[in-house]
Amino acid sequence: MRRSKPALLPARLLFKRSIRTSAPRWNQPFDPKSIERAEDEVDVCIVGGGPAGLSAAIRLKQLEREKGNEIRVVVLEKGSEAGSHILSGAVIEPRALDELLPEWRTMEEHPLRQPATSSKMLFMTEKMTFPMPHPPQMSNKGNYIVSLSQYARWLANVAENEYGVEIYPGFAGAQLLLSEAPDAKDAWGNDVRSVRGVITNEVGLTKDFRMKSSFEPGMAFRSKVTLLAEGAHGSLSKQAIQMYDLRKESEPQTYAIGLKEVWRVDPSEYKPGLVQHLVGWPLSSDTYGGGWVYHMNDGLVSLGLVIALDYKNPYLSPYRELQRMKHHPFFRRLLKDGERIGYGARSLTEGGFQSIPKLNFPGGALLGCSAGVVNIAKIKGTHNAMKTGMLAAEAAYEAIHEESEDAPATDMSGYDKAFHESWVRDDLYEVRNLRPSFGTKLGIWGGMAYSGVDTLFLKGRVPWTFKHHRPSHGPDKTSSLDSSFTEKADLHTPINYPPFEAPLSTDLMTSVALTGTNHAEDQPVHLRVVKTKDFVKGIEESQNFAVGAGVNALKAEAEIDAVAEDEVEAERKRRIEHVKVNVGEYAGLLQRACPAGVYEYIDVEGSGNTPEGDAWQGKKLVINSQNCIHCKLCDIKVPTQDITWTVPEGSGGPKYTLT
Amino acid sequence: MRPSPRRLLNILVPVKRAVDYSVKIRVNPAQTGVDTNVKHSMNPFDEIAVEESIRIRERSLSSSPSSPPSSPNPVTITALTIGPPKALDVLRTALAVGADSGVHIAIGEKEAMPEPLGVAKSIKAWIEKQNEKAGGKEGRVDCVILGKQAIDDDSGVTGQMLAGLLGWSQATFASKVEVDEARGEVTVTREIDGGGMQVRCRLPVVITTDLRLNEPRYASLPNIMKAKKKPVEKLTPADLGVDFTPQLEVLKVTEPPKRVGGGKVESVEELVAKLKEAGITAA
């Protein structure tokens, strides 16, 4: 029986109905079986308030106006406001915006104020730069340089105020609400449970999974259609892809990490509308990536470095690469007397056409970068993301029937079909062979040679489609392809990065402070040390919500028999294995790769082991989850593929405004 | 004669939409203030004020056995904010955690936020309007709970000015509040440099909250959705007869001077020599 607090009220009041709803829950472990969730019914629930999600919401409301059937649309956004978790270059092609909101030029406060006036490509060596021809797809006539964060904020404003979309920032989509029993067929004919909605995150749990007095269970939204628009490598998208085997006929997704800074430069260096892309130094010839410099409005410059995550050297630190790139004379001149006002990082998809999965599943669909629609030749994806949102909205509107409870799960296959007949598919098809061409032994030289020919002459009109390169030992379907390219540390030497030169380049913590990231104290660590397939199994089958959250959390759950005792031991073993492989063979890769300093492999104080018993040879993993900027690099790149990124309590994370 | 349900308190909680506490702020290029193109949210001390008003209500409900469960809420909480249209979000947050209705004194998008004296005068004007409408005892504002200061301007004077203008008792920097509605008194423990100071004030009273008063609750999603239906009164400064023209002129805003590094000394003699250089001598 659960222990309860001694009664504080006088005896005569014990029989009165208590009006307060907080039960004496203080410090009890979280029991998933006993929570009652508030529920609400909506027609469409969209997870993610970015360009894709918001375009879908706006399009649904436009259809409501045109055709008359009312439709309730709810957008859940884990950031404290729309746009606070979005980061991108960005130069956007207004093609989708022209379709969605043809009158956008007349709307007040629209953020497309800086047209791109030129487009240049430069090859960098350690000391010099050489102009280079660039693929015609990269020409920027008619495009705009924007802060994607501001763009999303504006779109959210339009959606809420002009179209009546309900947007709830600060609430993350934490779990998919599934039907009780298998009641639908997936795309391959298997019987599966369908998606019936989304559950938001629990609020008020301590690190060790005990309930605080402020505990509130997440709310369940029952929706006819659930659209996942979480951006690259979304947490629910990852689960959906696995549950419904959506990648059965496609290549795995490949990713890059983009690190960005926003500077206010000296007016003499400011050339509004200038777009420059950089290749070469500081990346070696077997690492795909490059830098950018975009001159935005109001004297601001966006600059950064994109590094493909299939890099081999575990000693590579994306953050240090960005900082040393700024030591190049080109940047020294640009940033002299400037002031850095923003920093951030986010993974982006690079797989392109080959990596588009099946886009629909029973009851929902994947939108935008959750599907992976970045055109890497243009280095643009926003127009594609918005169009997928619009296509999904149209399919959803058609497919929704009026009955609820016993109706079959909504069939969104119309969206998948529409996608493959749209200009998004053509946009990605044209450039599908470019990224794989960089994956041969010729490194970037082979890639540039093939890409030059393809973009200038062939334009993708060839009968072959390259597959993404594979390492000698292929990963299993649920692991990321990129992580399997990482080579062991003993095959490489540590890179000698130059020391920081403030204010041009600074240490990591100074930069992280600029992201404004923060998470409420004492909550479960949202970076779970467990393979995703075990995580999903844990949640769905054994109701083990604390899987991966650390030995103490599992101990608390075992205390109330919410999980079996041997789960605690399994958790300990997972931790030890993680530290053993990452420190022993890969020199603690995550400690170097995370752009926010979340992961540390440190020595255990005193003798031997931690109180939880999860150290290996005197080393333990420390997760500073408060620093997390939600970039998802760890989930993608960790060599042991045992970090599953999950949503923290809503409103936590970065507070980007200019990125 | 059946006793009418006792009306306990009518609490007004002014809240401010201020720069969010976790944002790294910068001076704007014109050096006239802080760059406000950043995330805003409710001033943390105001969150504590809203939380305290809700706790006062909860305490009074659990300790008044004579009021039948169906009687109207004996403690009414009104949230008030002054600001541009976006300030409505902050008001909705207050409604979501438990306030009953809201008041939005609207200023233009590009206008400057009012100074503390302007804020105090507006609140006073609204209270007087409200008390006039109420006539007798019911509906009069008994208690104003504010945050002790806003985290963007750190003025810390609005509560005090308001009490002065109204002629009410004031208990500032509260770390504990106890309401005795039968006697019409409030006992407040104030945080002072020497520790804690207890004051007993007769209603009506102005209280400003300090950090240790309570820990605010989260607004749950179902409550946020219900809050959309709660009434919000919209007013302009002109409706209240208040003028927000600034009385103060900001000449310049700069960042604090960069901290110059210290130096390491090798021996005690060197330390003494450096101290002497800095002009510090033995007493």
Automatic annotation (TrEMBL), chain A:
Its EC number is 1.5.5.1. Residues 619-648 form the 4Fe-4S ferredoxin-type domain. Its cofactor is [4Fe-4S] cluster; FAD. Binds 1 [4Fe-4S] cluster. One of its GO terms (cellular component) is mitochondrial inner membrane. It is an enzyme of class 1 (oxidoreductase). The keyword Iron-sulfur applies. It catalyses: a ubiquinone + reduced [electron-transfer flavoprotein] = a ubiquinol + oxidized [electron-transfer flavoprotein] + H(+). Accepts electrons from ETF and reduces ubiquinone. This is Electron transfer flavoprotein-ubiquinone oxidoreductase. It comes from Coprinellus micaceus (Glistening ink-cap mushroom). The lineage of its organism: Eukaryota, Fungi, Dikarya, Basidiomycota, Agaricomycotina.
From TrEMBL, chain B:
Its cofactor is AMP; FAD. Coiled coil: none annotated. Residues 32-244 form the Electron transfer flavoprotein alpha/beta-subunit N-terminal domain. Keywords: Electron transport, Mitochondrion, Transport. One of its GO terms (cellular component) is mitochondrial matrix. Binds 1 AMP per subunit. It is found in: Mitochondrion matrix. The keyword Lipid metabolism does not apply. One of its GO terms (molecular function) is electron transfer activity. The keyword Electron transport applies. One of its GO terms (biological process) is fatty acid beta-oxidation using acyl-CoA dehydrogenase. Heterodimer of an alpha and a beta subunit. The electron transfer flavoprotein serves as a specific electron acceptor for several dehydrogenases, including five acyl-CoA dehydrogenases, glutaryl-CoA and sarcosine dehydrogenase. It transfers the electrons to the main mitochondrial respiratory chain via ETF-ubiquinone oxidoreductase (ETF dehydrogenase). Belongs to the ETF beta-subunit/FixA family. This is Probable electron transfer flavoprotein subunit beta.
